Amino acid sequence: MEMKNNTMINEFILLGLTNTWELEILFFVIFLLAYVSILAGNCLIILVVIFDSRLKSTPMYFLLANLSFLDIILSTLTLPKMVIDFFRERKTISFWGCMTQIFLAHLLGGSEVILLIVMAFDRYVAICKPLHYTTIMNHRILVGSVLLSWMVGFVHTMSQMAFMVNLPFCGPNVIDDVYCDLPLVLKLACTDIYVLELLIVAFSGILSLIFFILLLVSYIVILVTVWHRSSSGLSKVLSTLSAHITVVTLFFGSLLLIYTWPVSSYSLDKFLSVFYSVITPLLNPIIYSLRNKEMKAAMIRLKNQYMYSKPNF
């Protein structure tokens, strides 16, 4: 792709969440604690899956560890700068820094969409076809699924960036948000963007809606299948799937509001930006670890193994 940058500006100004000093201090503490919690929670999931032999050999937790890795990168993409900017009177980001944020956000978002679909398929096979679970969800399929998620994410983000880097930006350069979000940056281009906005809705909004509906249908199929087999096991399966349904709803709900909501509101845009980059990565380890008996049992095993084991001399 030939990059012809016709921009006349070299940086964007981010207005952030507030101009009130007291609120900026409060938000600094909140987002710093949130980032530390995201790193701690998701790193803990990855380490537990790697070092616990039972979870390491389970396909669902292999996928969960990869989801945690994506969440770590996604939060690191935006949160550290957001925290630092609370102490800056003039919050700026370079043109190519802004383009990098957009590129990585769509790369990670596209990858996470596919990974959530694979995780839903994993639950379908585990619940509806338990005798064939290990055969279908083998190591080759798992690794191939993770690689496919990154490939789809790359193709998706390149489809967005192919036109973004060639747009002229001659001013204004003010973004009323906490980081560079594609729809808001696109509005600053010095050209007609009607067709480009339709493309964004098609590539991001409509595709997200289709995938979201397919995921919900797959969960309904699982519940109906279990109900027909044994109504007594429905509550157990529903408890298992509730974590997945919660994560899927939060993730796709924020995407749909960002890219398909017809009413533009700066306060809503900021809330969705924070929700997508902060709240979702923070809730994932809480939902998947604190509500997961196997994960909690694995943490206890590792704690007993590494913290209370007697050294051999």
Descriptive tags:
313 residues, mainly alpha, Rhopdopsin 7-helix transmembrane proteins, 11 helices, 3% strand, disordered N terminus
Give the % helix: over 70%
Tell me the name of the CATH homologous superfamily: Rhodopsin 7-helix transmembrane proteins
Domains (count): 1
Oligomerization: single chain
CATH fold label: Rhopdopsin 7-helix transmembrane proteins
Order of helices and strands: EHHHEHHHEHHHHH
pLDDT under 50 segments (min length 5)? Answer: 1-5
The neighbouring-strand order within the major sheet is: 2-1-3
CATH class: Mainly Alpha
CATH architecture assignment: Up-down Bundle
Number of helices: 11
Main β sheet profile: 3 strands, mixed
Describe this structure in words.
The chain is mostly helical and 313 residues long. It has one domain (11-306): Up-down Bundle (Rhopdopsin 7-helix transmembrane proteins), CATH 1.20.1070.10. It is 74% helix and 3% strand. It has eleven helices and three strands, in the order E-H-H-H-E-H-H-H-E-H-H-H-H-H. The chain has a three-stranded mixed β-sheet. Helix 3 (59-85) runs antiparallel to helix 4 (95-128) and helix 9 packs antiparallel against helix 10.
Which helices and strands occur, and which strands form pairs?
Layout: E1 11-14, H1 21-51, H2 53-56, H3 59-85, E2 92-94, H4 95-128, H5 133-136, H6 139-164, E3 174-175, H7 182-186, H8 194-229, H9 234-260, H10 266-290, H11 293-306
Parallel strand pairs: 1-3
Antiparallel strand pairs: 1-2
Helix pairs in contact: 1-3, 1-10, 1-11, 3-4, 3-10, 4-6, 4-8, 4-9, 8-9, 9-10
